[in-house]
Design a protein that fits this description.
Layout: E1 7-11, H1 18-29, E2 32-35, H2 36-51, H3 57-66, E3 69-71, E4 77-79, E5 82-83, H4 91-100, H5 104-118, E6 123-127, H6 130-134, E7 140-145, H7 148-161, H8 168-184, E8 197-200, H9 206-222
Parallel strand pairs: 1-6, 1-7, 2-6, 7-8
Antiparallel strand pairs: 3-4, 4-5
Helix pairs in contact: 1-9, 2-3, 2-4, 2-5, 4-8, 7-8
Bound molecules: cytidine-5'-monophosphate.
Length: 223
Amino acid sequence: MRPKGIIIAIDGPTASGKSTTAKQVAARLGYLHINTGAMYRAFALLVHRSAGDGHDPVRIHELIDEAEIGFDGNGNILLNGTDVSREILEPEIALLASELSTNAEVRAKMVEKQRELGAAGGVVLEGRDIGTVVFPDAELKIFLVADAGIRAERREQEFERMGTHISLDELRWQIEERDKRDRERTISPLRKAADAIELDTTNTTIDEQVQRVYELAQGKMEV
Ligand code: C5P
């Protein structure tokens, strides 16, 4: 057993329910929640602010060096000490994050930080490569999936709650675009680890998802 508990890895495609599940499971267990997608988005925000579209490898290399990405005590994402939780939700930042996440140098820096944050255990990490690359020895690996239409609807509702309207067609296109890139990239593509448990959230409520992962975690702690 690790000093602070087990490592729970939650991977899966865009809008499959990772963040909501990871956050609530972490709260119930008193564990740290690390949203690794937010880290890629924070870096994308930095690139967007200083270099624009992010196609200049030299500039990316410089920015990777100056980027300080982490979380505050409430799980908010910090970029060079400032909370950027709100800014990283912009769709253009999500698309840029997906582009930048194919860059080997960017991934190396993020993975190093994620390992540093999670190694002691007592942590729920969510992302695309947690169970396959970041913590292949995680005690519990979950792979969340859901129907693409449902995922677009969930994203639509999230944006509506924030007062932003984006059409369902546009959201579906964005989700499919990011998924395709995540699955097809050469480095750390999105895939289910051989020992991950797949949960389909198309027809389940958030409470059911959280309960299922919580029970699986309890089972691992008793081993
Ligand atoms: O999870 P979220 O949608 O916020 O992630 C934004 C983007 O960051 C994803 O589309 C994906 O390309 C990338 N990402 C990644 N590896 C992770 C987490 C996110 O490549 N572990």
